[in-house]
Amino acid sequence: MSSINVVVHGALGKMGQEALRAVSSADDMRPVGGADRMAEPGQMSLPDGSGRIPVSNDLADVLDGADVVVDFSSADGAMEALRRASARKVNVVVGTTGLVEANYREADGLADEHGVGIIIAPNFAMGAVLMIHLAKVASRFFDYADLTEMHHEAKIDAPSGTALAIAQAAVEGKSGGFTNVRAEKELIAGPRGGDYEGISVHSARMPGRMAHHELVLGALGQTLTIRHDSINRESFMPGVMMAIREAASRKGLTVGLEKIMGLG
Q: Of 246, 196, 210, 6, nearest to 125 (Cα)?
């Protein structure tokens, strides 16, 4: 079987470097290019030292021969990658967060127009995807919910996209909101966190953390805790590899790793 030729967009970032490392070690894949807005056009060394690949600050420069583009850039960068890659009949896997509904509609149109596969996954950690699934299954049996997410200090959004997906799944599974208990007297502002359909959502940011999510569901005399921890960026790579393989053969837009995992 021929190798899947992969270009990484956002290749100089931490996730881009991890993706290049994973692709380099996969028996059925081959890194053929990198793009990053901070890159000097030329050649770049692969993170595992196995060779060098073309690199540019313009994705179009490195698309020749590519089967799949993996994007770990920004919301704007992801949309630009989708437009440029799909127009060249190259499939795309997007791991960038921050996309809005209009972006998904455009991605769906691009996939249909150019006959390519586009997979957008807010989280590539399979354990986190399973957590979202379990939240949806369990939530209908409980009346109260607290959701805490903890990330590194450089994360720009709060709460995380995964936390929102967990909350949305819980509300969907329950077919309605939860009972939110607010303090009669708040000694500081907002001690119960944000409120999403009755779920109290708390965000923590500090060095030393990667990605941690904990949902506590409560009912009379009992609680159920569902927690997932990503210890390092390697945790996302099995999901990224799964999506790359799927994108090479699955046409149209797919949103969420759970579709590939057979969970939804």
A: 210
- The residue with tokens 């837009």 is 253
- For all residues of the chain together, what is the average pLDDT? 95
Give the predicted TM-score (pTM) of the model.
0.86
Active site residues: 151, 155
Sign of the CA dihedral 185, 188, 193, 197? positive
Q: What is the pLDDT of residues 196-223, one digit of tens each?
A: 999 999 999 999 999 999 999 999 999 9
The two most distant CA atoms of the chain are separated, in Å, by 66
CB-side exposure of 79: number of CA atoms within 13 Å?
Answer: 12
Residue 213 sits at φ, ψ, to 5 deg, of -135, 135
Beta-ladder partners of 20: none
CB burial of 113-137 (b: ≥16 within 10 Å; e: otherwise) equals ebebbbbbbbbbbbebbbbbbbbbe
Model confidence at 158: pLDDT above 80: yes
Domains of the chain from N-terminus onward: 4-120+234-261 (3.40.50.720), 126-231 (3.30.360.10)
